[in-house]
Design goal:
- A hairpin with a 2-residue loop joins strand 5 (65-68) and strand 6.
- Helix content is 52%, strand content 6%.
- The radius of gyration is 24 Å and the shape is globular.
- Helix 6 (130-144) crosses helix 7 (160-186) and helix 6 (130-144) packs antiparallel against helix 11.
- Strands 1-2-3 form a three-stranded antiparallel β-sheet. A three-stranded antiparallel β-sheet has the order 4-5-6.
- The protein is mostly helical.
- The protein has three domains: 4-50, Rubrerythrin, domain 2, CATH 2.20.28; 73-236 and 384-407, Citrate Synthase, domain 1; 273-383, Cytochrome P450-Terp, domain 2 (Cytochrome p450-Terp, domain 2), CATH 1.10.230.10.
- The structure holds acetyl coenzyme *A (ACO).
- Acetyl coenzyme *A binds next to helix 17.
């Protein structure tokens, strides 16, 4: 196999290096295209553009494979704890017991937020969407946790302590913000957790404990939460992760970069789909449950309705996370003794779509968001909080990519464009227009 790709343009031939990844995927390095041929590439939505080299997550959309640092998502979702996965994603190896204990201790030591953040949270209108609040509060954390000044002969990227401190701080404070956003919506007091509990157990306590009641661990809830967080923890160069990398590439801080990632995740074509799926399933139920009617709408190009939770930019066979979540939704509802008609509607929609040429020819399959909302609903998490839960899970992935980008000294992200506007023209005074 040649390691060069050739381009013939305007009677000239140009050669470009072909880079091969560790799973044998190939990419043409076009970085010299402009200097050599005065050309750029154009690829709206970056549908076929690699923005970086990364050793964090491998994904094969055709075969439905997802691996974090070489470990299959199925294996991790079944056997690992979310904090182990966070460590794995960020540092590249599974932690041993003492590494994991130290990681948790360092997170716990930072598990406090400035009291003024409560005032900021309380100043938002009750109707404000939790994703907007979470993004703002994450950004506000910067004011209370300013980055240390970097000396001239040192750089942030090479100061591992500085980076480590930012990482454990963020992993410590985001769950508190998430829990508080949820509690405020419910009118519950804003309290801290019990750091003798594990990371995920403590998150469930912080979110759900009612005043004057002891917290009793519910294994079904904690295990479901652990699995959901792991399944959402990373997904290589998706919209929000690319946002985090591009914001961080300007040397913006970790908190600023993650705050931008939260905003990018919010949209309904990305993480916001989990809320949109449940709203869609409820709308179908309230309309009498005729899934066929909504299938027709989804296929009608003149109708803006899309089958939310279906389709994916890279998965063209199946989304391995959706398979795990579908089974988990079934198990969680059974274990909690819930008979939710919405699960039946979801299964029937899925069955119809998988037998419909519109969906099969376009390779549209259920994605991670199709069944996750059903589990969140069973855990009594309100719809508006679904994407916040996704963000909570995605934090380690964002951190891992931000760290990788900084450690690799990746250049500032700055795409080019093909200008299609007016050619040069002269200013016309207002009285002559
Ligand atoms: N319902 C109906 N038709 C769809 C759907 C859908 N959910 N998704 C894609 N299509 C159709 C498109 O209309 C298009 O049809 P055409 O070729 O006749 O024009 C074709 O399938 C390809 O779709 P694109 O939008 O071009 O694919 P793209 O890769 O740009 O978008 C996306 C992927 C955004 C996920 C899309 O499938 C979608 O909108 N899905 C619903 C929202 C959703 O579930 N998002 C969550 C994704 S997972 C995540 O981000 C965590």
């Amino acid at each position: 196999m040649s390691d060069k790709a050739k381009l013939n343009f305007d009677n000239n031939e140009y050669e470009f290096q072909v880079i091969v990844g560790s799973e044998k995927e190939k990419a043409i390095d076009v970085s010299s295209l402009r200097s050599e041929a005065n050309l750029i590439t154009i690829d709206p939505g970056f549908k076929n553009t690699g923005s970086c080299r990364s050793s964090i997550t491998f994904l094969d959309g055709e075969k439905g494979i997802l691996r974090y640092r070489g470990y299959s998502i199925e294996d991790l979702a079944e056997n690992a704890s979310f904090l182990e996965v966070a460590f794995l994603l960020i540092y590249g190896q599974l932690p041993n017991e003492s590494e994991l204990n130290k990681f948790l201790d360092d997170i716990n030591e930072n598990s406090i937020v400035d009291e003024d953040l409560k005032k900021i949270l309380e100043s938002f209108p009750k109707s404000a969407h939790p994703m907007g609040i979470l993004s703002s509060l994450t950004s506000a954390l910067i004011a209370f946790n300013p980055e240390k000044k970097i000396s001239l002969n040192n750089s942030y990227n090479s100061d591992h302590d500085l980076m480590y401190n930012s990482i454990v701080k963020l992993l410590a404070k985001i769950p508190i913000l998430v829990a508080w956003v949820h509690r405020r919506r419910k009118g519950l007091p804003l309290e801290y957790g019990d750091y003798n509990l594990g990371y995920v157990d403590n998150i469930t306590k912080m979110m759900f404990q009612l005043p004057n009641q002891d917290y009793v661990k519910n294994n079904v809830i904690v295990n479901a939460m652990n699995k959901l967080l792991i399944l959402h923890a990373d997904h290589e160069q998706n919209c929000s992760t690319s946002t985090v990398r591009i914001v961080g590439s300007s040397e913006a801080s970790l908190f600023a970069s993650v705050s931008a990632g939260i905003s990018a995740l919010w949209g309904r074509l990305h993480g916001g789909a989990n809320q949109a799926v449940l709203e869609m399933l409820e709308a179908i139920k309230n309309d009498g449950g005729d899934t066929k009617k909504f299938m027709v709408k989804a296929k009608d190009k003149n109708d803006p309705f899309r089958l939310m939770g279906f389709g994916h930019r890279v998965y063209k066979n199946f989304d391995p996370r959706a398979r795990i979540i579908k089974k988990a939704a079934h198990d969680v509802l059974k274990d909690l003794g819930i008979d939710d008609p919405i699960l039946k509607i979801a299964k029937s929609l899925e069955k119809e779509a998988l037998n419909d040429p519109y969906f099969t020819s376009r390779k549209l399959y259920p994605n991670v968001d199709f069944y996750s909302g059903i589990i969140y609903k069973a855990l009594k998490i309100p719809k508006e909080m679904f994407t916040v839960m996704f963000a909570l899970g995605r934090v380690p992935g964002w951190i891992a990519h931000w760290r990788e980008m900084r450690m690799n000294n990746d250049p500032i992200g700055r795409p080019r464009q093909v200008y299609t506007g007016e050619n040069r023209r002269s200013f016309v005074p207002i009285n002559k227009r």
